[in-house]
């Protein structure tokens, strides 16, 4: 299973619900959050794969036993495969759900990314075998979560991004936002909802933040809409964080300035477009970019002058 959506779209929440559902049905679960991997872990493939093995064993409350199952005579991917096959997947008949969150962290590590993708694809293919080995790998369920496309090039036969069930999380539509408003017992008319959607689109994080503030009566809808693209607005912390990302990557800042200053879709360098999409700052239409929502256009068109 592959979950893909920009940041703050609800991927991690959905992942936790999937893992909870799996545990309720008796599955073992292990979650690997690549945001937690420090630089030393990502130095080379061996260090990374051994970290993977130890982390999963720790999640399952097992002793690492790397010394027993890791033999230098084998290659790195082979060693990791043997560790899962002969140890983690063989101790019980219970299936294991392995979730890998923030997979895009590896896009910037060319020594690790293609080899790890090849490894995951190999595990997926191994489960198709009709022998004893295949039966072992059928116990593994992989869930990969990432915030953008895999823009580093991969052989299609080696990629884990073109197999399995793909779930691309969309924004909320008007009916879903209406339901959220009702669930929170807010009194917003049709015109109010239209104005809210025009500003925020259906961005889950922004919509939820607006509903939370309206429910607590910290702000009226009129004030929220008026102050939203300013430093006094309820989204100021989030907007400043996004601005920080842009200011620390000149390519992204230059590209995004073009997007918010133009009323038509803008064609950007592929990697710049994907990174902006990963941050949720743009929506992709074919090969072109538009602002993720009107709030972003209003705020960044003044900050990026």
Can you put this structure into words, describing what you see?
The chain is of the alpha/beta class and 305 residues long. It has helices at 11-24, 45-59, 66-69, 76-88, 113-126, 132-137, 174-183, 190-200, 204-215, 221-227, 236-247, 250-260, 270-278, 294-303, and strands at residues 2-4, 28-33, 96-101, 140-146, 166-168, 266-267, 282-285, 288-291. Helix 2 packs parallel to helix 4 (76-88), helix 12 (250-260) crosses helix 13 and helix 12 crosses helix 14. The mean pLDDT is 93.
Q: List the helices and strands in order.
A: EHEHHHEHHEEHHHHHHEHEEH
Task: Please tell me how large the radius of gyration is.
Answer: 22 Å
The amount of helix comes to 40-55%
- How would you classify the helix and strand content by structural class? alpha/beta
Summed up, the helix count is 14
Q: What percent of residues are in strands?
A: 5-15%
Query: What is the count of β-strands?
Result: 8
Mean residue pLDDT: 93
Strand adjacency order, main sheet: 2-3-4-1-5
Distance between the termini: 42 Å
So what's the overall shape?
globular
Uncertain segments are none
